[in-house]
Design brief:
Helix content is 32%, strand content 28%. By secondary structure, it is of the alpha+beta class. The radius of gyration is 13 Å and the shape is globular.
Length: 99
């Protein structure tokens, strides 16, 4: 049974910021990046363990997948997947996301 995908406000805001920033150069590429991120997160409901454990946290329930240069961090819960954050790969990870 697929788990429900729940987006945090932080992750939603970050996705919007990413879209706006990329759109400054290319509306087409901005839409492509957002579509890819959304497509990849939808798969998590059926395949929650597809991502790797976030190395900074070493917690099996906190994982990440990648889309372009972005890390999509998510937490696996019994009935849902919480999308916690979307962070550019060159940025330092905010340790407040630690479970």
């Amino acid at each position: 049974m697929a788990r429900l995908i729940v987006w945090s406000q932080r992750a939603t805001d970050e996705l919007e910021e990413i879209a706006q920033f990329i759109a400054l150069d290319s509306e087409h590429y901005s839409k492509a990046v957002v579509r890819t991120i959304l497509r990849k997160t939808r798969r998590l409901g059926d395949f929650p363990y597809i991502g790797r454990v976030v190395p900074e946290f070493e917690d099996d329930s906190m994982r990440e997948i990648f889309a372009y240069n972005y890390r999509i961090l998510y937490k696996i819960k019994p009935d849902e997947i919480d999308i916690a954050a979307i962070i550019h790969g060159r940025r330092l990870l905010d340790l407040s996301l630690r479970p």
